[in-house]
Amino acid sequence: MLNDRLHEAIALHNLAEAREQLGDLKTAHQLLESAAEINSALKNDEQWWNNQMALLQVEAKSSSTELAERFEKLNSKQPPNRALKALFLNERGLWRSRSADFGAASADFKEALQLFAAEKNESGAATVVANQALLLERQGKYREAAEAWRLAENRFEGLANPIGIAVSMAGRGRTLLAAREQLPVAEDLLRRAARNFHALHDEAQAQQAIELLRKAQEAQGKNPTEAVEGL
After folding, report:
1. Domain range for 62
2. In terms of domains, do 20 and 119 share one?
């Protein structure tokens, strides 16, 4: 109503994030495209790139066929600053990791980590380390992945980030179980991860941790029905 298109785009982006958190990915995508259209018209490159990062995340969640097309389009462009370039490389690394293009994914994560470090963005760096751990896990390098998850957990603890801590504990427990090493440690990590996910109201990840906890107990000859005690 005030013809303030800059703040209209910001409001659309914020509303899209809210819709995404509610699981309404289709509406979130439409809102982000609208915000990007305004920022393109205004030649507001930084905000346009923020819209693109959010679109990449929504499309990844929805398993959209548009994801590859968007990366192809963005690969020919240059982010306006190091922070956005790091975010882009992290998203591209995740995509390449899911596509089993492991060498390219590793290179993207390495460069993203360097850029986040240069920006002193500890949260971004912790996220990349966790993604590096997941990449190693997808390659079946469980020992290396367990160590990478430990490093990610340490970084998230330094940031007092409960979600990052829970995800990292679950990842480390999962990879130790896959490697059949330090099973009591894996059991403890998975139990605490499940408890943390419950506290965060993320029941899907809590259930995944509990299922892995049962497997860790079975691997030690324990009764898996004890897995849910205290959770």
Report:
1. 1-80
2. no
